[in-house]
Design goal:
Alpha-Beta Plaits, 2 domains, homodimer, Ribosomal_Su5_D2-typ_SF (chains A, B), ATP binding (chains A, B), ATP-binding (chains A, B), cytoplasm (chains A, B), amino-acid biosynthesis (chains A, B)
């Protein structure tokens, strides 16, 4: 096999009480990439459509992630990469993660799978480091493993796949305003009260239990974040109205996707997810902000060949 | 039915990363109680053996919990309570919780089960309020539900039963020194860093996932507490050696039970749990502190009639 075309899913990270640890892969929104073996050593971005992003290997997240893999492999050739972006950069649904993971996943396939999925997470994290300054794993892990994934620990890296309830759907709205990840990190408090911490890990425990037992009510009750959401949501115009509307339309829970500005909601069943989408759109139509809406079931496969 | 004899299990709360939210019921150690209907309205502690504790209803945790139930019931009689303590007060394995829960569980049975198990948790919490000044639920919930339980939230109270892996055994050692719950609460920091919080909820997520998937390695990796254990363990002589020895003997993890001084370890299989017990004993024999050791499988039933 010399060439592979792959679908690279969008992902939601920082799922409410799962701040910095819990992410999930989406099904109906993602990029496409073509990865091709080439005799010349190196990573070469030969095409980039859909977004205005750097094509130099060292400045492109797929390039950097690809180099990380290449440096640890005994393959003495290289790869050409074509990237067809559907996910908007800076939207908060894992645009950089889709590119980084797509590159390393396809390369690993083309080389006969010398690396484990966890090792691919490490390579892809180098793309995240380039994109945001922090080598976080909460978008790249679900893109590579599929479904919900927990980053239990970074030292050592420990990714735990979590069950994805079959009737769970995500609705994501992307209001087209710009928030830089670095800015939205800066406004976070460095300290929290022990009491807030206990509340958060109680909810995360409930959410993980709800995902395993497919208890949709429990999932909904646990989707709370009293620590980060109250601060970051200030940067997202209309957030409170979107959340209120989503819950009133039957969503189990609603929060900030990644570091925003996208907002996600989870629902039981596609019909509710569609109602939630309408209520979300309404808010941004009223305040006049351009927006995209995605409705997706949970993608339990992650990246796949197409 | 006029009278019931019940077994009231000891419990481990504050399970490492599950500080204030996660508890578990034990099988081989617990109190016995006899609860008897009486025409006279009120709660009467008629016998108390094994420990020197107050017998006045208002000063006894079983009395107070029983009154909380009686006040919400339409029963116009009362109950006599006999308490046969095996769990030492102040040992950190839920002595007060055993008495509070035993009383309300048996009364509910004798009255034809007018109250849900969650409601019984609320009544029993009044006993905890008397014992420690805080109406916590992390011992009474596992005593009443059995197995592992998560206190997701206090407002409203939301108890989530968590799967108990079948080969999981607990070893508990009680070094006979006195630590007051109120003292061990006082030394806690009121604030933690966001980074410490993230580490803790990553671990709790991993622990809950490990309990549901019966992944003993994951349970072991997740049994960490970087927040409370480093502070509270200072109050427990020999703690570091006990923990080191337990892990070296094959324990999955080891931590402080409740607010101490008891120390628990979880192991896969009874043989390992016994080896862990020997290594724990050795430490206290060397430093000359009297101690009790318990080895127990997880009690998935909770309180039961005997």
């Amino acid at each position: 096999m010399e060439e592979l075309r792959v679908f690279c899913p969008a992902t939601i990270a920082n799922i409410s009480c799962g701040f910095d640890v819990l992410g999930v892969a989406l099904d109906s929104v993602g990029d496409e990439m073509v990865i091709r073996k080439t005799p010349k050593k190196g990573i070469f971005i030969t095409k980039l459509e859909g977004q205005d992003l750097p094509m130099e290997t060292e400045r492109n997240v797929a390039g950097v992630a690809g180099l990380a893999l290449l440096n640890e492999s005994d393959y003495d050739g290289g790869f050409e990469i074509e990237i067809y972006k559907n996910i908007k950069a800076g939207s908060g649904i894992g645009s950089s993660a889709a590119s980084s993971t797509g590159a390393v996943w396809a390369m690993n396939q083309l080389l006969g799978k010398p690396f484990t999925t966890s090792k691919l997470v490490e390579f892809a994290m180098e793309g995240e480091r380039l994109a945001s300054g922090v080598a976080h794993a909460d978008n790249v892990a679900p893109a590579l493993f599929g479904g919900f994934t927990l980053v239990r620990s970074y030292e050592p890296l420990d990714i735990i796949p979590i069950n994805s309830p079959s009737e769970l759907f995500a609705t994501v709205i992307h209001p087209q305003i710009e928030i830089k990840t670095s800015d939205s990190r800066k406004i976070l408090k460095t300290h929290i009260t022990l009491k807030e911490g206990i509340k958060q890990w109680g909810n995360l425990g409930g959410l993980i239990a709800g995902l395993f037992t497919e208890d949709y009510d429990l999932i909904g009750r646990s989707l709370e974040d009293h620590i980060v959401e109250p601060i970051r949501s200030i940067l997202i115009p209309g957030f409170n109205d979107v959340k209120k509307g989503a819950l009133a339309s039957g969503a189990l829970g609603c929060g900030i996707s990644g570091s925003g500005p996208s907002i996600f909601a989870f629902s039981k069943g596609e019909a509710t997810a569609k109602k939630v989408a309408l209520s979300m759109k309404e808010v941004y139509e009223k305040i006049g902000i351009d927006h995209d809406v995605h409705i997706s079931k949970i993608n339990t496969e992650g990246i796949k060949e197409i």
